[in-house]
Structures are given as structure tokens and as C-alpha cells.
Amino acid sequence: MSNTDKTDKGNTTDKSFQRAIRDAKSRLYGEHPIPLEFHQFVDVDIAPTLTPPPRKVEVWRNTLRHCIHNVVTASLVGQCIADARNRNTMPPLRIACWSALTQAGWVRMAVGSQLSKKVTRYIASARLLDRRKLWTLRMLDGDMGNTSTAPDLILLTTGKTHWLTGEPIPPHERGHVSIRERVELTAQRDPEDIRRADPEAVCNGLAYFTEIEDIISTINANNSDHSWKAFRTIEGVNGKPRRVAFQPSVELKQIHSQRLFRAARLYTMSVVGAQSMSEEQRAEMLIDGKPIVEPDFSCLHIRMLYHFIGQDPKGDLYRSELVFPTLHRSKATPQLRKAVRGFLKEATAAVLNTSSRNEALGAVHGMVDACPRAVRNVLFQLENSGPNDLLTRIENVHPDLMERGKFYSDAANQLMQVDGTMMLHMLKRFADAGKPALGVHDSLVVKAEDERFARRVMTDVYVTFFPGHRPVIK
């Protein structure tokens, strides 16, 4: 171990805080466009407190900016930055930056992560977050064409494979595709010249997306008329918890994956987007200085599938008590039952997200590796089961969906497009009423005083899409 690594370990916090960092959700270090104002902040407030290397000072300074940007944006939404301290794969100057920031008290460090148990993890210290009482989005989000700040309100991503051939796309060729170009490419052909698109079809397609742009713009304009504040709990320099306020991004964009309308949902793409926060952190948000609630559709995708086939089953549709009968006959704690139900929800999602049983089986194997030991003990020891048997149990408790070919059919992408369209209609209703609201997949973040209005809107829109069926709203 190098002297630098020894110094870092000497500066780590107590074991309980290191454990909290290890258990927190993490994201990998990445370099994103940073606005000039943030450059100036790092150069003026942070860099002078550190000793630069004798050579490549400008490279070191640029790396320092990215380290600070990574750790601030992650910490504000309750996450850590994971960055392996491997001199064979990580530039030495980046290791030097993390070490200097840790030694100076700008960053707190812990070794290990919730998945790999090996990757070093970093979180912003109270000293760093205290440099700004309220981090403005302009200080954090770049304006150089990255996803979060691209001016487009509707984005089509290439994904990792070609939308027609399925061939892998090299990383440097991935990105966004022009909506206009894809509409022209996929529109109905001109009957007089099949080599080109029918001009009327192209016009109709662009008119549709223009209308969607108008709706999203209306929603974003309405939300921007209201104040949104979120909080991040950190450990202060005196060891006591402190709450740091920041302004989350609520600007929504509609993202299509690989193909138009595939998995099309509304997202806050900013590095400090409200959708990136945990449910617990969102619960503490304030809108116009008032508390919020987050009603959501219960078992939305699995319920939608049943309503598609004309059935309306009751109760918890993940049916944990049937999939894990031994657990539910035991004296297991409510916390363990909740954790197992969450694991079952992920496994059921894999059944809907994949196009073959083998693909789903691989996904479940990964979930088993990553889940808490107590959940694995339930699966393997208490239930005497495993990934393959778990899929069989899920199939057996949903025989009608299995028989109708809804499992292993990549149904989730269609379901996401439907619930994304539903969310667009719900948020438009709020905007028309001048009430702030943010969609988070299948839930709405609204003022507590608007909860009854939210439930009515959610029910009205759902019934419009599924006549004769009502949703269950938690």
C-alpha cells in the first residue's frame, strides 16, 4: 500500500460513518460538462487549499474540478461516488486529487461498496457542502449538449444496440438521434417513390411530437413558477447530523429508448434531479415552503397487464405470501418480509423486462448476488429455493399472464410507454390547474394540500386508459 493510501485510511471517519457510506447508493465517477461558474468555484475556493503536483498542474486542476463536481452532485441526492483506487486503471492524478481532498477535509472516504465491497467510495463533507447554502442548478449542470441540459424536450437515445439490426453500438457512437430524422426514416413511404417518406406522413409525425413538446413545456413552465427545496442529511464536523438545503431539478424531458415510443417516459435528467433522490429524501421536500405527499399506483405494471386481459384481481399482486409460503408462516419480522417483498418485486420486473426465460434467469442471479444476506437465507435456506425455482413460483402464481404470453415478452417497454403517457396527461391536468406536481415513474410528488386532487386525477386518467377498471393508489 502506498503512503497516500495509508494517509487516506488515517483520515477516514469512524466505523459507523464508513458503514453508512458503504451502504449508500453509489454511482461511478464520470466526467460531465461543467459550467464556467463551477470551474471558478473550485479554482478559487478549493484548489488554493491543496498542494498541486510539480508537473501537469492544469491536468490536475481539471481532474480536481471533476472530482468535486462528482462528489457534490452525488452527495446532494444521498449518493456516493465509487472510484476504484487501482493505479493500473485509474490515472495517478485522479488518485492524487481524491487523496488531497480527503486529507484537506473536503471529502470523506470509505473503502468498499454495497455491491463489490472493494471500490473506494467518496462523499462530500459538511465543510464542502457548507460553501453554498443553496446550490443553484446553473452552478452544477453543464450547458454543452449533455443529456441533462440538452435543449430538446424529447430525446431519442441510441441505446447499446442498433434499433434495427440488434448489433452492438461502439460506446463512442452512442448518444441521441434526431427525432426529425427518425420520423423521416420510419414514416409511411411515398406511394409514388418508396425510396422517400410520404411528406404528409412526416408532417403528421412532426406535428404529434410538436404537440408533446408543447405539453411538456407547459408542465415545466408551471413547475418553475413554484419553489422546490430538498434536504440532504450529512454528518457535521462536530459529529452531529446536519441538514443541507438545495434546489432539485424538476425539469422534465421525454426519453425514448432506441425506437420511438419504446419505454417513453418523463425524466428529470439533471445530476440533482428530484427523481434521483430516494423516496425518504423526497418525503422531506418542500414545495412553496409546504410539505409534500407522494401517492403512487400500487403494483402498477402487473395490474395493468391484468386489466389488459380483462381481469381485476385484488390484494398485493406480487403475491409474496404464495411465492414464499414458509416465510409467511414463520415469525419473521416485518422488516424482513418487506425486504423479501422488495426482492420479489425486482424479480417480477425481470420477468417483464426480458425477452426470454434465460435472460430473466441471468438477471435474477445478479439480484441474488446483490441482495442482503438475510434475503438470500430466506430464498435458499428457509424456502429451499433458488433463482430458477423462483421464476417457476412467479409463473405459477400468475398462470393467466403466463398463458397469455405476457411474461418474457419485453412487456415492460410497452407498459412504460403507457404509464409515461398517463403521467403526461396527469401533469398536464395539474399545470392547467396551476398546481405544482412532479412525476416519479408511477407516483406524483405534490403538496400535501393537493393530495385529494392528485388521487382524483390519477384515477380519472387511469380509467381513461383502462375503461371499467380502477387503480389502487397508496
Helix content: 40-55%
Structural category is: alpha+beta
What is the global morphology? globular
The count of helical stretches stands at 20
The main pleated sheet reads as: 6 strands, antiparallel
Strand content: 5-15%
DSSP, total strands: 16
Low-confidence segments, given as residue ranges, are: 1-13, 113-117, 142-149
End-to-end distance: 51 Å
Question: What does the average pLDDT come to?
Answer: 86
How many structural domains?
A: 4
* Strand arrangement, major sheet: 10-9-13-14-16-15
Global Rg: 24 Å
Break the fold down into its secondary structure elements and pairings:
Elements: H1 3-11, H2 15-23, E1 26-28, H3 36-46, H4 57-76, E2 80-82, H5 92-103, E3 107-111, E4 120-124, H6 126-129, H7 137-140, E5 154-157, E6 176-177, H8 179-186, E7 189-190, E8 193-197, H9 199-224, E9 228-235, E10 241-246, E11 253-257, E12 265-267, H10 279-283, E13 286-287, E14 290-293, H11 300-308, H12 320-323, H13 325-329, H14 334-353, H15 357-370, H16 373-382, H17 387-397, H18 399-403, H19 411-432, E15 437-440, E16 443-447, H20 451-465
